[in-house]
Amino acid sequence: MLATSAFGMTGAGAAEPQRLAVVASFSILGDLARQIGGDRITVTDIIGPNRDAHGFEPSPADARKLAGARLVLVNGLGFDNFIDKLMKAAGNPARVVTVSSGLPLLRKAAEKPDHGHGHSHAGGKAKDDPHLWQSPANVRQMARTIAAAFSAADEAGKATYDANLAAFLARLDVLDQEFRTAIARIPEARRTFATNHDAFGYLAREYGLTIHAIQGVSPHAEASAADLARIIRQLKAAKAPAVFLENVTDSRAVARIARESGAKVGGTLYSDALSLADGPAPSYIDLMRHNMKEIAAALAP
Amino acid sequence: MMGLKEALVDPFVEFGFMGRALAGVLALALGAAPIGVFLMLRRMSLIGDAMAHAILPGAAVGYLVAGFSLGAMTAGGLIAGFAVAVLAGLVARNTTLKEDAALAAFYIISLAAGVTLISARSSNVDVLRVLFGSVLSLDDDTLVLLVAVTSITLLTLAILYRGLVMEFVDSGFLASVSRVGGALHLTFLGIVVINLVAAFHALGTLLAVGILILPAASARLWTGNLTIMMALAVVFAALAGLAGLLASYHYALASGPSIILAAGGLYLVSLLAGRSGGILARLLPRHHLES
Hints:
The structure holds two protein chains of two kinds. Chain A is an alpha/beta fold. Chain A has ten helices and eight strands. Chain A folds into two domains: about 15-100 and about 125-170, Nitrogenase molybdenum iron protein domain (Rossmann fold); about 175-300, Nitrogenase molybdenum iron protein domain (Rossmann fold, 3-Layer(aba) Sandwich), CATH 3.40.50. In chain A, the strands form two sheets. A four-stranded parallel sheet of chain A has the order 2-1-3-4, covered by helices on one side. Chain A has a four-stranded parallel sheet with strand order 6-5-7-8, sandwiched between helices. The longest helix of chain A has 27 residues, at about 160-185. Chain B has one domain (about 15-290): ABC transporter involved in vitamin B12 uptake, BtuC (Orthogonal Bundle). Helix content of chain B is about 85%, strand content about 0%. The interface of A and B includes residues 52, 229 and 251 of A.
């Protein structure tokens, strides 16, 4: 049954050759592509909504997604290295567009030495923080890069892509203004929170937040008692008013930590993946707006 | 050099999650270890392992329906665990397959089905959690469940103790004189399943059976007396829980596997030095009698 439906999909793709076939490495890039490509493209995400990009292992079905693609959008910076392997396996000549190129990068906070307990985060050997999309300013540039790639691959659609890009940039501006207004309402001393996923560095820089990334806990392994104890001590020392859960880690453990450290538990912040269509973050703009509301609610005095 | 109190007591006082984890494993030890003794004497250790694996797809269906909901995952696990125990018996009786083959078949199917179901909807972290448990993040509901299971287990054991002992001496006897034997057996399976589900929440599907079997097998190597054996098994299980949690705290080791490894260490020591059938006791039978 699986095989039949897979052949069915390939058949449908071939029947509409005029659409530009785009593959995005993860759901947030997929959404940017949809915003800009509109009806002129088909987008397939490799890492779909609500899936963890960390420790992701592509399956043969993922390799097949690349088979008919003309453009492949990747984030780069070690976030989606698996694409290289997949491209070799698929052996097709699609153009790979790295949307992070040219953007000013932040260092990963997690590279700080940490009481001698060196926990290496498997896979991400790059020293730069890959979570660029957490700042709308970066996404402006990423959207431009994507629109330029679409226009180069499909010249007839250039006017459409440019119009969609302009509309999307306008929505980003509105989002940015809302964010600044929301942060301005929070007393300066409270513009700080802790999180178990070091993914919000660009957000913090953009809007003047201080974020205590909880160190030493890999999201892809069971935390040991020593890990949990270290987190609780760090939270107590940082005196952050709030701590945020992740949509991809063990919420019970984090709730436990918050209770013992006295920090307020914020709602779920979406970092690396959209939610499913019926969730609170089915698109990039929704994701950022959701995170904004959660942060504002948790930090409000 | 760390003081003894600092090393052994302070972690449980300073951190609530350590205290909870300890409460969880102690509750588990009190109920699961005696059940493990019966399981072992009945030569049902492998059935126990198969049932522990069978809990996974049941809990996974509960997870798909309701997310990480204690109730849904517990109910699913109970149903699936019980079903496999009964099914394996039926297959062994009604086909040419022996029970060990039937069990091996069911348990590997269960494991594959469970991992497939969980990973279809969620991240690798969730899969690790169901395989190896999350003893460090026991919430109030899970602790209540563990204590409830232990209470039910001890009560049932107290009521059925004589019948269970007789049945284990000669499982044909009760069955031949009445139907009580069958009912007793099913009740016992039920108790095994609830203990495995409790252990599943703390230690995960791959390790759950360890807290039943390892302390029981260790205790058997020290005594032939059933009552002492059960008490000793509880002590071993509790010691393993304590030592495993402390190892996880001081040496940053995964907590569930540490607990089972500690139980494994006690088992190896018992194998070597156990006074009732350990290796040394067999090599030096006279010394054993004199000492």
